[in-house]
Design brief:
The structure is a single chain. α5 runs antiparallel to α7. The protein is of the alpha+beta class. The protein folds into 2 domains: 145 residues, no CATH class; 117 residues. The protein has a 6-stranded antiparallel β-sheet with strand order 7-8-9-15-11-12, with no helix packed on it. The chain has a 5-stranded mixed β-sheet with strand order 5-6-10-14-13.
C-alpha cells in the first residue's frame, strides 16, 4: 500500500547516502509532488517512475537531485537492481532519451558479471566482480532485457501510444549498419515485427509488420527514427508510406505518426524517410 504524505509532513525528512544526510527533494513546502516514503532512490523513486503517474517536471526534479547525490545507490555505495527497471521506464516515458541510454548501458556494464551476464540482487559500489555483491536474483536478471525491449518498443501508459524505436541509440542507424529488427514482440495490442535501416546518408527505411488481429492503439502508433545526422541539423524532410506521400511526421520529434491504421496494412512494410 502506498502512503501519501503532504509536503509539510516531509519537510524535515532527509535521504542518507555516502555523503551523509541531504534534504529530501520533495521536502519543501513549495514542492507540489509529495513523496511516498523515505527510502528515496532505492525503492520509492524507481517504483513510482514505473507507475507512469509522475508528471515530467517531477521526474526531472528527482533525476537532477539523484545526479547530484550519488545517483541511484540504494544505500551508501550499494546498488540494488531488482527494481531498477523503474528508473528506465520513467526516463523513457518522458523522453529523457540520453539519460535512459546512459542508465541502460550502466546497468549492463556494472550490475552484471563480465561475459556471463549474471545479475545479483545488489552490488557493492560499481564493481560487479567484488565479493560485496549479494546473491543471484531473478528480478535483477530481467532488468537489462526489459530495458532493451522498451528501447525498441514502448507502450506509453498515459497517452496509450505504441512507440517503435523511441530510445534507440543513434549509432544503430548509421549508413552501412545492419538493420535493427524485432520479431513478433508482444504488446497489449498484439504481436509486432519491425526492421529499421539507414539505406543511405539521407534515407532510412522501415518495415512494420502487424498481425491481422492487431488492435490499433488509442493514441496511435509512433515510429521514431533517431538518425545520427539529427545532431548536425539533418531532419526528416519527407516521408512515403507504401510509395505514397505521408504528411504526419514531426521533424523536431523525429517521429512518423499513424493515428489510425492505414487503409492498407501492408503499406507499413514500406516506410521511407528522407532527411535533409
Amino acid at each position: 500500500m502506498l502512503h501519501i504524505y503532504s509536503p509539510e509532513q516531509v519537510a524535515g525528512w532527509t535521504c542518507i547516502d555516502a555523503k551523509g544526510s541531504h534534504p529530501h527533494p520533495v521536502g519543501r513546502s513549495d514542492y507540489k509532488y509529495p513523496t511516498l516514503d523515505v527510502f528515496c532512490t532505492g525503492r520509492t523513486y524507481p517504483e513510482v517512475f514505473y507507475s507512469g503517474l509522475l508528471p515530467a517536471d517531477a521526474v526531472s526534479d528527482i533525476m537532477n537531485w539523484a545526479a547530484k547525490n550519488d545517483g541511484v545507490f540504494t544505500v551508501p555505495q550499494q546498488w540494488c537492481t531488482f527494481n531498477s527497471h523503474g528508473w528506465g521506464y520513467g526516463l523513457l516515458q518522458h523522453d529523457y532519451i540520453e539519460q535512459f541510454l546512459v542508465y541502460t548501458f550502466a546497468v549492463s556494464a556494472h550490475a552484471q558479471t563480465r561475459g556471463t551476464w549474471t545479475a545479483s540482487e545488489c552490488i557493492g559500489g560499481l564493481d560487479r566482480d567484488t565479493d560485496s555483491a549479494s546473491g543471484y536474483a531473478a528480478p535483477s536478471q530481467t532488468v537489462v532485457p526489459t530495458l532493451m525491449k522498451w528501447m525498441l518498443l514502448f507502450e506509453d501508459p498515459v497517452e496509450k501510444q505504441l512507440w517503435i524505436g523511441k530510445g534507440m541509440p543513434r549509432e544503430w542507424l548509421l549508413p552501412g549498419k545492419s538493420a535493427v529488427s524485432l520479431k513478433r514482440s508482444p504488446t497489449r495490442y498484439g504481436r509486432l515485427s519491425f526492421s529499421l535501416q539507414a539505406t543511405g546518408a539521407t534515407s532510412i527505411s522501415a518495415n512494420v509488420t502487424l498481425p491481422t488481429d492487431f488492435k490499433w492503439p488509442k493514441g496511435g502508433l509512433k515510429l521514431r527514427l533517431r538518425a545520427p545526422g539529427f545532431i548536425d541539423g539533418k531532419e526528416i524532410k519527407s516521408v512515403t508510406v507504401g510509395g505514397k506521400n505521408w504528411a504526419s511526421f514531426n521533424a523536431t520529434e523525429e517521429t512518423i505518426t499513424f493515428a489510425t491504421a492505414p487503409p492498407a496494412a501492408a503499406a507499413l512494410q514500406s516506410v521511407v524517410a528522407t532527411l535533409g
